[in-house]
Amino acid sequence: MKISRLLIALAVVAAGAAYFMWHARPSAATVAAAPRAPSDPDVLRYPAGAPQLASIRAEPVQRVALPLAGPLNGRVVYNEDATARISSPINGRVVTIKAQLGDSVRAGQTLLVLDSPDLGSAESDLEKAQADANVKRLALVRAQTLYRGEALARKDLEAAQADYAAARAESRRARLRLHNLAPAGAVNADEGYPLRSPIAGVVVERQVNPGMEVRPDLPNPLFVVTDPARLWVSVDLPENLLGKVALGHPVAIEVDAYPGQRFAGHIDKIAPALDPVTRRIMLRCSVDSGAARLKAEMFARVTLLADADQLAFRIPNAALVSDGLYSYVFVEQAPGVLRKRRVTLAAQDRDYAYSVDSLRPGERIVTSGALLLNSELGVTQ
Length: 381
Fold this sequence. Notes:
GO biological process, one term: copper ion export
CATH topology of the largest domain: conserved putative lor/sdh protein from methanococcus maripaludis s2 fold
Largest sheet: 6 strands, antiparallel
Strand content: 25-35%
GO molecular function, one term: transmembrane transporter activity
CATH architecture of the largest domain: Beta Barrel
CATH class of the largest domain: Mainly Beta
Keywords: Coiled coil, Transport
Radius of gyration: 41 Å
Family: Belongs to the membrane fusion protein (MFP) (TC 8.A.1) family.
Structural class: alpha+beta
Pfam family, one: Beta-barrel_RND_2
């Protein structure tokens, strides 16, 4: 009796196990979509058209100069060595404006024309001074002739010499005043006073309108002319990074207007003292704006770089997966074949990590979907 019960129990257990194994079998679709059994435990192999591949994006790894620190906040400003802030040296009323915002101008080109009584006065003063100097010169010549004929006292000769010297000085003063008002050359008060640009560049600011009364002591310049291809970037450097920078060190500059693009520059000025409030020191970087794409007053992110020969592979942080104390990326060896590789990081910032020798030029790494691949690899193992 006991043997019969035991046989019945064994039969029930065997039937249940068979039922479970039948219903737990993977479907044909599941088998086709899963990674093929890899010979290498760090490699995933997907057949063409596998649904996992739609969630994965691979890109070639880029090699860039190794950064010394994370990006710093900066601001694009005019290069003052290539910028002229132009005001009127005399009082007057604007008659004609000949340069508009955004116009390219040559050195010496007229920006506006003023109707200025001061210019007429300066020209008149010069003509009178020159005429007086000519009269005093002739008087001196006569005095010298009379003195040689002993018909004139020496003190009268000396008085004539003094009068001529004073007249020459007044003529020179009037000429210099007119030259100061019109350094670019001769002007005609009847035609108006031309305000000219001292440098070649682009008009980036204009604060004058027709009919406006101008004077030398206005708080703002009438025009600002600059070379838009030569700009500075001002950076506030934390005190603890001061030992990593030096004049001439390269920098990489990024702005929100051009995502993913870097503009090359270098440090050309380090302030002699820190700001006592912020404990930061000002750096000035020169940058080629690349066809004037950078604009003054843009906010920028400035990355301090090592020497040009110290290169590293730039890895988006989204491409990294962590396993314990180490970091890994997935390298695309062939279409559908992805290998998990350990990388050694030399630096890391908010957006990117940098590795010196863990990758090879031209290799493609997974930049989107790395976490999915890592979990899939864990399942297959």
